[in-house]
Design goal:
This protein is α/β, with parallel strands linked by helices. It has helices at 2-24, 84-87, 96-104, 121-135, 151-166, 179-193, 233-242, 271-277, 288-294, 312-327, 355-377, 381-398, 400-412, 424-437, 453-461, 506-513, 535-551, 558-567, and strands at residues 51-55, 67-69, 74-79, 140-143, 170-175, 199-204, 218-222, 252-256, 299-302, 305-308, 334-335, 346-351, 416-420, 442-445, 467-470, 495-499, 525-530.
Length: 579
């Protein structure tokens, strides 16, 4: 028995030892093998009599025989002539694919002559101001003319002269969406004013990554406010393209926008010029808000980031200093010219709801307030934004019939109507369908790939459709008398505009009014909102931000500020609004 106990103890001891060993033993993982970087792919080479063709193939479209090149971010075909099944993908001149194609071949393809365009006096003098800034060694020029004054022609003429001055020949144009309208507009303008023998690349902001590794001599940033936020992928690609993070080997940038920002905090794309203005290194301006605070601007860091003061006098002082940094130099680094035909008229249009509509509106408002209270209590920002979105959609749907009735009255008065909406299913579709049911033709510029946007625009411009319902905010022309691509002119019928939903963004609001109030054509706009509801406050916010976004560029917005002050008398208590 004693021996047995000893064996049991020994066995127990061994068991514990084994157990301990098992628990402390770890399995070593193999260190990951480092893969050597792949060598860069060889560029396609054309044989005798052949050419490398770079194709503009739509997403998921069949391209038999063409090869997708990840290094070029494009489809490529090598041969003498494009086969019929690929001919539809032959890119127009001055586009991104055509630019790459010219890079890969010994000689560029000839460009057919465009319809000549004669520069207006404002465009010629504006180009002279830009060239003088470039000759002085400036890095960025802010071209802030009012919508419709002619920034496109000014930028094209200036880019040609700047390249001749600096010895470059590569120009990048970054345009806003929709690409089906903005890219043809720029390519026609380049051909019409003359390309100067330069190599042009026109693309939209959402494709900026494709050119982030290329170098250009001049960069034209159309609607430059698209890069006012530094936390986006777009900003990272913009820094690479524009040289905003480099001190040397940088292009000359023409930042073209009538609405540079809502606040001075949204001007990082002008930081290189601010640094140069103060004789400071570029890295000192990498944190723009902190630098503005250092220079005495009325900005401060809060719980949710940097914020600009609400004091009107302090705001005006900040804007004056900001404009002075750009405009007081010799030569100046900015230019703003008001529209010679006068500022746009923006007036409020309260909509009186029926008792049933008022009950529905109040019900939606109370539901929204309850949802926002829960979102704030739980600190759920996404939930709050979703609640706000639902409320605005439903509120707009309640007023859809009033908008339809107003539009019908305008058409009967022999006017063409541009209706700006934010939502499709609760605004654009019901308004369009109701107008079609009443026998009124409607051009639709909204919804991804639902309509041919250029064909719809031309229906409105020629008068075939007296109404246009659209969601885009910039870079399309809907004004009377426009010179159309085929050489004809748009209908002379006066245009009026309506914001079916007030916008929180002053930049978007100012851009929208410039779709019809441009190129010498006067077009009044109205802002619709439900009477005696929270939508009145949204309308006031839009008007106030409309004033700030214009005054940042140097525009006189005193009339808008007076409207905002008049509307400020009987506002409801403020609610949380998001940009």
């Amino acid at each position: 028995m004693p021996g047995r106990r000893r064996r049991t103890a020994r066995s127990t001891s061994q068991s514990r030892s084994t157990s301990t060993t098992r628990t402390t033993t770890t399995t070593r993982r193999k260190a990951p093998t480092r893969r050597s970087p792949k060598p860069p792919a060889e560029r396609p080479v054309a044989g005798p009599g052949e050419r490398v063709w770079v194709l503009a193939v739509p997403f998921r479209a069949p391209a038999p025989g063409a090869l997708w090149r990840p290094d070029l971010q494009a489809h490529v075909w090598v041969g003498r002539e494009l086969p019929p099944e690929l001919a539809a993908y032959d890119p127009p001149p001055y586009t991104f694919e055509r630019f790459l194609e010219d890079e890969l071949n010994d000689s560029p393809r000839p460009v057919p002559p465009g319809r000549p365009l004669v520069p207006r006096e404002e465009q010629a003098t504006g180009a002279e101001a830009v060239v003088a800034s470039a000759a002085a060694g400036h890095r960025v020029f802010l071209l802030g003319d009012d919508p419709g004054v002619g920034k496109t022609g000014t930028a094209v003429l200036a880019a040609r002269e700047v390249c001749e001055l600096r010895g470059g020949d590569r120009v990048l144009v970054v345009a806003d969406r929709p690409a089906a309208i903005t890219i043809p507009h720029w390519t026609r303008s380049i051909a019409g004013f003359g390309d100067g023998g330069l190599r042009w690349c026109v693309m939209t902001w959402d494709r900026l990554a494709k050119v982030s590794k290329l170098r250009f001599d001049v960069v034209i940033a159309d609607e430059a406010h698209m890069v006012r936020h530094t936390t986006t992928q777009r900003w990272r690609h913009w820094k690479a393209v524009s040289g905003a993070g480099r001190a040397r080997d940088v292009p000359f940038v023409i930042a073209a926008t009538a609405t540079p920002a809502h606040t001075p905090l949204e001007l990082p794309y002008l930081a290189p010029q601010f640094a140069q203005c103060h004789g400071e290194p570029l890295r000192a301006w990498a944190d723009l808000p902190a630098k503005l605070a250092e220079h005495g601007f009325h900005v401060e860091r809060g719980r949710y980031g940097w914020a600009w003061t609400e004091d009107a006098d302090a705001r005006r002082a900040d804007l004056a200093r900001l404009q002075g940094w750009l405009a007081d130099g010799e030569p100046p680094a900015t230019l703003h010219r008001p529209a010679p035909w006068g500022p746009v008229s923006v007036t409020g249009t309260p909509v009186a709801l029926t008792p049933a509509e008022q009950d529905a509106y109040e019900s939606e408002w109370q539901e929204f307030r309850a949802e926002m209270r829960l979102a704030r209590k739980a600190r759920q920002t996404a939930r709050g934004r979703a609640a706000l979105l639902r409320f605005r959609q439903k509120a707009g749907l309640i007023r859809a019939q009033a908008t339809v009735d107003w539009v019908r009255a305008q058409v009967e008065a022999e006017r063409q109507v541009a209706v700006s909406v934010e939502f499709v299913e609760t605004a654009a579709d019901p308004i369009r369908e109701a107008l079609l049911d009443s026998g009124i033709g409607v051009a639709a510029i909204y919804g991804r790939d639902r309509f041919d946007v250029e064909a719809e625009r031309l229906r409105f411009q020629t008068g075939a459709a007296p109404v246009c319902v659209f969601t885009v905010t910039a870079s399309i022309s809907l004004h009377a008398g426009e010179l159309l691509p085929g050489g004809a002119t748009a209908s002379p019928t006066p245009r009026v505009g309506l914001f079916h939903q007030p916008r929180f963004s002053g930049i978007q609001a100012r851009q929208v009014t410039g779709r019809t109030h441009r190129d010498g054509q006067v077009s009044p706009w109205r802002v619709a909102f439900a009477e005696d509801t929270v939508e009145e406050q949204v309308a006031r916010v839009m008007v106030e931000r409309l004033a700030v976004s214009g005054s940042t560029a140097g525009a006189d917005t005193s009339a808008l500020q007076e409207i905002a002050e008049l509307l400020d008398a009987d506002w409801l208590p403020p609610v949380a609004l998001t940009e």
